[in-house]
Each structure stands twice: as C-alpha cells, then as structure tokens.
C-alpha cells in the first residue's frame, strides 16, 4: 500500500485523499495504489460510494509527474500509460458512485481522474486544463474520450487543442462539472451527494450505472434491450424486495447490497 493515498470509510462511503505534496502528481506508486484501493472498495459490499479529494489547498492534482518524462524514455511512457489506464479504468468500473471534490488546480491526469468519476463538484476558484500538448504530450488517461462525452467535441477540442485553462464557473457552464460550490465546500457537497447515494439500493445503482456507461460502446437499441434484462435481473436481489416492501410498509429500507 502507498502513503500517497489516504483511505477512510464514513458509513457506506469511502474517502480517498490524494496525499503527494506539493502538487499531488501521479507516479507509478500512486497510480498502482489507486488501482488496488479502488478494486478493494469494489469488492467491499459495505461501500456504495467513493469521494476522491486532495489534501492540498492549492492543487487537486497537477497530473503526471513531469520529471518522469524528462528523458524521453519510451519504456517509462509505456509503463505510465498502462498504470494510468489500469487505475482510471478501475475507477470507471467501480460499481458504486464515484465523486470528485475538485478544490484547486486539476491539470492533465489530475483532471482525467475527475473525468473518470461519475460526478464532479468544483470549488469556485478551481482551474482545469488538459495542457499535455503544451509539453509535447497528449492526455492518455481517458481525457480525449471522457471529456468529449461530457462536453462534446467543440469544447474538448478547444481545451485540448488550444491548451486553454478554464475556471470552475465556465467548467460548470459547459457541463464539465455538475456542481459549483464556494471555496472550501467541495468535500462537504461531495459527501452530501454520497449520502444521497447511500439511500438508494446499491444493486439498483450498480445496474443503472452499467446501463448509462454502456451508452459509450453500445448502440441505442442494445441499451434498451439491456435495460429490460437488467430490470428483470434486479428481481433476483434482496435489495429489490427490500426496497419495494419498505416503501409499501412506510419504513426506511435496509440495504444488503445483494
Ligand atoms: C496522462 C497524463 C499526462 C499529464 O498529466 S502531463 C502533466 C499535465 N500537467 C501540467 O502540465 C501541469 C503542470 N503544472 C503547472 O502548469 C503549474 O504547476 C500550475 C499552473 C498548475 C500552477 O502553477 P504555480 O502556481 O506557479 O505552481 P508551481 O510552482 O508551478 O507548482 C508548485 C510545485 O509543483 C511542481 N509541479 C507542478 N506540476 C507538476 C507536474 N505536473 N509534474 C512535476 N512537478 C509539478 C512545480 O514544479 C513546483 O515545484 P517546486 O516548488 O519544486 O518548484
């Protein structure tokens, strides 16, 4: 395990705090650590949501540690691209809901980790960019794909091809973040959303997330068919019976995540 990430559990929510001062850059150690941590959380039936945040007031994350790329070593590039892929794809496959609490600079791979999450909350002074081309690189951790899905090709091209750095209010306006909050309040808001997730059936949430994310690769009618199949599959779960019966009995449901 790495000390570059601190993991705590609060109820059914896990909080992952990036802890690599000064700029929370990503290295082999922190990326491998993230993949392990998220996979463990994915196996933990008590965890329905995760929040990723930073321990720094200035940086959410400045992305890949550029010191690693100074020598132009292709094997380092190949390894880092793989570690980024494994970490952020594990995050995207997390069966619960992932929320990024963006409190400062989110640059390159530091924005891409937030793009791999389901929901983004940003503080008003936060700034975001995918500035890889400024240093002769490209966003290899899902940025070109995930940003396009969120904001469309036009803004994706403007951000990546022009290297533009935008402030959180504009990020909210174009749909890059879902929630804008005053400085110092991103974690609180992210936890509020996580608590809302905790009220929902975790098995139903996992199935809904699978359906929504399938849009990325499946054709529209395949999505409709899968929706119906997963709806019926939910009737194999205890949570389905618990959810409906709790409503009819006018009581709060007790989720089993099975
Ligand atoms: C697949 C993924 C690829 C990638 O992610 S490629 C990397 C993409 N990221 C970037 O290009 C961001 C690089 N960083 C910056 O542009 C600037 O930072 C900011 C604009 C975000 C902030 O600027 P300022 O307020 O002047 O802070 P500061 O002095 O630059 O940063 C504080 C310390 O943090 C180090 N640092 C910042 N980003 C990185 C980085 N990405 N890799 C390695 N070090 C970084 C600096 O050098 C410095 O360090 P010291 O205090 O020793 O001078």
From TrEMBL:
<dbReference type="GO" id="GO:0006635">
    <property type="term" value="P:fatty acid beta-oxidation"/>
</dbReference>
<dbReference type="GO" id="GO:0004300">
    <property type="term" value="F:enoyl-CoA hydratase activity"/>
</dbReference>
<dbReference type="InterPro" id="IPR001753">
    <property type="entry name" value="Enoyl-CoA_hydra/iso"/>
</dbReference>
<dbReference type="Pfam" id="PF00378">
    <property type="entry name" value="ECH_1"/>
</dbReference>
<keyword id="KW-0456">Lyase</keyword>
<dbReference type="InterPro" id="IPR029045">
    <property type="entry name" value="ClpP/crotonase-like_dom_sf"/>
</dbReference>
<dbReference type="InterPro" id="IPR014748">
    <property type="entry name" value="Enoyl-CoA_hydra_C"/>
</dbReference>
<dbReference type="InterPro" id="IPR018376">
    <property type="entry name" value="Enoyl-CoA_hyd/isom_CS"/>
</dbReference>
<protein>
    <submittedName>
        <fullName>Enoyl-CoA hydratase</fullName>
        <ecNumber>4.2.1.17</ecNumber>
    </submittedName>
</protein>
<comment type="similarity">
    <text>Belongs to the enoyl-CoA hydratase/isomerase family.</text>
</comment>
